[in-house]
Design a protein that fits this description.
Elements (H helix, E strand, L loop, with lengths): L1 H15 L4 H9 L5 E5 L9 E4 L39 E7 L2 E7 L10 E7 L4 H11 L1 H5 L6 E2 L10
Parallel strand pairs: 3-6
Antiparallel strand pairs: 1-2, 1-5, 3-4, 4-5
Length: about 160
Amino acid sequence: MKTFSNYITVLILLTSNLAMGSVCSAVASLGKNDALYFGVESKSNVGHYYFYRDGRRMLEPNNIKDSFLPESLGYYGLIDGGFCLKKGVQGHALIHFIEGWTVLSFWDSSGDSRPGSNSNFVIKGRHSFNEMVEISKALFPTIWQRFTFEVSLSGPDLTSNSP
């Protein structure tokens, strides 16, 4: 059912906002493993894990060679808080481009109130902050719905499709 609601969200974006053309085409061009969320999926499922856009939890690979992600984005890399501001406020985001993937990272205690809780949206390709926000909202709407804080960029932005 989550997958169906994700596609409905994408269709609503397509029909309601033609100015979002580049974001919509980016969403449409992504493969099933090209957009991931790393963080706490819900308050009832505490713990930081990778999730596919259909809501399934990505299993931890036996070793990094079993993963399609670069090593720094794997479970044993920097993904769990390493890409966030060193001392930050909830929602103050950084954006990174790592080996063909864009990562939007910020501290987030909306799913887990323990210190160090964070959210990361990992999307294949190079995307600006605004594009990452819109793409991840379209693909992970239930995650974004729980944020009661503003997500704002606290560092340099990336220009889409830059080398």
